[in-house]
Amino acid sequence: MEAGQAFLLFVIFLLAVFVLVALAKAVRIVPQARAGIVERLGRYQRTLSPGLAVVVPFIDRVLPMVDLREQVVSFPPQPVITQDNLVVSIDTVVYYQVTDPKAATYEIANYIQGIEQLSVTTLRNVIGGMDLERTLTSREEINSALRGVLDDATGKWGIRVNRVELKAIDPPPSIQDSMEKQMRADRDKRAAILTAEGSRQSQILTAEGEKQSAILSAEGDKQAQILRAEADKQAQILKADGEAKAIGAVFNAIHQGKPDQKLLSYQYLQMMPEIAKGDANKVWIVPSEIGAALEGLGQAAGKFGSTFPGSGFPGHGAEGDGDTEGSERDEDGAMPGAAVADEVHDAASDAAAEGEAAVTAAQDEVRAALKAAEAASRGRSTSPEDVAAETGETDPGGQGPGHPPEPPPVPRPPES
């Protein structure tokens, strides 16, 4: 009895364990972006979608879950020969996504390995038709070619290749050195070209600047010469006008002074010593006009002597007879001839003083006219007083302007 109860309890325990295992086998939870393949008795039954699913325990078998998300796989570097027989190593990265779990499970045994091998073969085909330069500069073209070939080949596998990227293209070290040298030479060439172009532009700009400077300098010199010529022209005109005015003033001053023959003769005799001055004058030539001057002076002396009786000069005799040998002395004991000589001397002195005064006045007026002409040429007016102040002329004798100094004495005539 007790043995039967124990066996019954064991059977109940086994049934409970079986039920629990059956329930565990029958209930499956599929995560999001996952897919489960169910096989019943070794044959494809259905595909489990995300969520809670119930299968027949011990009859249905759920295969490992298939990931439906986009996945990235990086393949190791692959040696590839280019069109110009250079071996380069290329790393590829493939972005793919499972779109059909059933095809990915039953159409290919290992779709990752299939994608890798297909990428290598397609890459070699694409790179084999390109040289090294084009390979290094045509990444986008290579990516597009690989993506097209892989997408067509993996479509029946239930896989979609979204992108294929070339991670690295590594040429051989010798080629890298050659490329670096070539790149350095190219950069040096471009640097030299740019330097030469800069020097050329600099020289062109410098030449243009010098040209403009020379043109402006020539224009300035031209204008300066024109203005200088105009200034010289105006200066010469003003100078000529001033000289004309000075000559007119001298002419007017001479005519206003009304010099007579006595004054001119006396001035002529005064200029004789000035003519003889100078160390270089070895020979003194007496002009022929000296006779006329002496004659004029003699006539002036004779005119003054004829007014007094008993003067004793030839041709101008005293009252009664022209003999001077028997003349009597006056009350003071002086001879009448001496008195006449004194009178002649006084008259000559007065005439010389008047002539000197007239000449000095004429000279002052000439100086004033010259100063006025010069001031007019400079653009200002000058009075005779200003001219005297500028020239520093003073009146040494205290007689005022126009009064000459004391004339030299006239030689007395010999006594009879």
TrEMBL record:
Domain of life: Bacteria
Stretch forming the signal peptide: none
Segments forming domain Band: 25-183
PROSITE patterns listed in its UniProt record: BAND_7 (PS01270)
Gene Ontology CC: one annotated term: side of membrane
Predominant location category: membrane
UniProt keyword ATP-binding, yes or no: no
Keyword Transmembrane: yes
CDD domains (UniProt xref): SPFH_paraslipin (cd08829)
Biased composition, class Low complexity, residue ranges: 349-362
Pfam families: Band_7
Keywords from the named record: Membrane, Transmembrane, Transmembrane helix
Membrane topology: Single-pass membrane protein
Biased composition (Acidic residues): 320-333
Compositional bias ranges of the Pro residues kind: 402-416
InterPro entries, sorted: Band7/mec-2_domain (IPR050710), Band_7 (IPR001107), Band_7/SPFH_dom_sf (IPR036013), Band_7/stomatin-like_CS (IPR018080), Stomatin_HflK_fam (IPR001972)
Region (Disordered), start-end ranges: 305-416
Subcellular location: Membrane
Family: Belongs to the band 7/mec-2 family.
Name of the protein in question: SPFH/Band 7/PHB domain protein
Organism: Phytoactinopolyspora halophila
Classification lineage: Bacteria, Bacillati, Actinomycetota, Actinomycetes, Jiangellales
